[in-house]
Amino acid sequence: MKIVVSELIWEEGLQILSELGNVVYDASLWKQDLARELADADALVVRNQTRVTREMIQAAPRLKVIGRLGVGLDNIDLAAAREAGIPVVYARNANAISVAEYVFAAMLTFARRLEEATAHVKGGGWNRRFYTRMELYGKTLGLIGTGEIGTRLAHRAQAFGMKILGYDPFIPPYEVACTEFGVQLADLKTVLSQADFVSLHVPLNNATRNLINRETLSLMKPSAYLINTARGGVVNEEDLYNALREGKISGAALDVLAQEPPQDSPLFKLNNVILTPHIAGLTEEAQVKTSLLVAQEVVKILRGEPSSCVVR
Ligand SMILES: NC(=O)C1=CN([C@@H]2O[C@H](COP(=O)(O)OP(=O)(O)OC[C@H]3O[C@@H](n4cnc5c(N)ncnc54)[C@H](O)[C@@H]3O)[C@@H](O)[C@H]2O)C=CC1
Ligand SMILES: O=C(O)CCC(=O)C(=O)O
């Protein structure tokens, strides 16, 4: 068996794959001639930077499985994989807690500004009035998408005494979790207009691309913050820039951008923006879980066994 891993994988997963076959692993393979490697490959394992196109799938006649070391599947041509009869397995729920904790870090950063206050004190300042900020207690968190991440975030927000609103037109699989964690389901307009923090947890697809745009941003309160850990394409960045610059909303934390890594962006010039390099799911714990899960599921498929992580 030849297993090609084109992006960063943790040792724990690599070990499992190596027991089954010959692993070709290079974390920068996604930038190179991947199609050549795939000509005789039985499995391909990727993160989010490898674009698994129809052409690439067609250039891999022996391919039996695609493993995704993560959750978002917008970088894989799922229709082409389905047509070729190649199952795609992914790390469902493996990084959800990490992303939920990242959102808390962002909300608390906006609420308390500890880094800024530290710089202020180190610079000789002691302005206690200026750094009198706000509690999360009693504030409203608006979830756009109440799946694995959204419900875990709700669980944590409930412990903070936040009110939680959720918008998700496909709710049934997560209905019980929403009830348990106090999520009141509402329409998009209600969630956007009432939330103090709006957090995005939807996949990127035709229905969610540019979901946050001039019109939807205008529904948010001027005091509200937007947090995007979903995908850059869910937010129209030009409209967001204008909303932030004009004070239509108070701030944004963006872990994901339309172009990653970004070239220069006007967002860099704004003080009310937190920017991180797509790290919400990147913790040791989540990555060990992700690598183990995906490696195990890839091996199951290669052995002809059923997998519970196949994308439907
Ligand atoms: N920044 C990071 O490191 C990470 C980012 N992600 C992103 O977060 C996304 C969500 O992840 P999970 O919660 O694990 O996925 P999930 O599949 O468990 O939940 C997604 C939810 O979005 C809902 N949804 C779909 N279309 C919608 C729409 N048009 N409007 C409102 N809701 C809609 C679905 O019904 C589902 O409940 C992933 O697709 C991925 O793009 C995921 C993990 C890490
Ligand atoms: O860990 C990564 O490389 C990306 C995580 C992510 O965005 C996902 O799981 O969808």
Automatic annotation (TrEMBL):
<keyword id="KW-0520">NAD</keyword>
<dbReference type="InterPro" id="IPR006140">
    <property type="entry name" value="D-isomer_DH_NAD-bd"/>
</dbReference>
<dbReference type="GO" id="GO:0016616">
    <property type="term" value="F:oxidoreductase activity, acting on the CH-OH group of donors, NAD or NADP as acceptor"/>
</dbReference>
<feature type="domain" description="D-isomer specific 2-hydroxyacid dehydrogenase NAD-binding">
    <location>
        <begin position="104"/>
        <end position="280"/>
    </location>
</feature>
<dbReference type="Pfam" id="PF02826">
    <property type="entry name" value="2-Hacid_dh_C"/>
</dbReference>
<comment type="similarity">
    <text>Belongs to the D-isomer specific 2-hydroxyacid dehydrogenase family.</text>
</comment>
<comment type="function">
    <text>Catalyzes the reversible oxidation of 3-phospho-D-glycerate to 3-phosphonooxypyruvate, the first step of the phosphorylated L-serine biosynthesis pathway. Also catalyzes the reversible oxidation of 2-hydroxyglutarate to 2-oxoglutarate.</text>
</comment>
<protein>
    <recommendedName>
        <fullName>2-oxoglutarate reductase</fullName>
        <ecNumber>1.1.1.399</ecNumber>
    </recommendedName>
</protein>
<dbReference type="InterPro" id="IPR036291">
    <property type="entry name" value="NAD(P)-bd_dom_sf"/>
</dbReference>
<dbReference type="InterPro" id="IPR050857">
    <property type="entry name" value="D-2-hydroxyacid_DH"/>
</dbReference>
<dbReference type="InterPro" id="IPR029753">
    <property type="entry name" value="D-isomer_DH_CS"/>
</dbReference>
<dbReference type="InterPro" id="IPR006139">
    <property type="entry name" value="D-isomer_2_OHA_DH_cat_dom"/>
</dbReference>
<dbReference type="Pfam" id="PF00389">
    <property type="entry name" value="2-Hacid_dh"/>
</dbReference>
<keyword id="KW-0560">Oxidoreductase</keyword>
<feature type="domain" description="D-isomer specific 2-hydroxyacid dehydrogenase catalytic">
    <location>
        <begin position="4"/>
        <end position="310"/>
    </location>
</feature>
<dbReference type="GO" id="GO:0051287">
    <property type="term" value="F:NAD binding"/>
</dbReference>
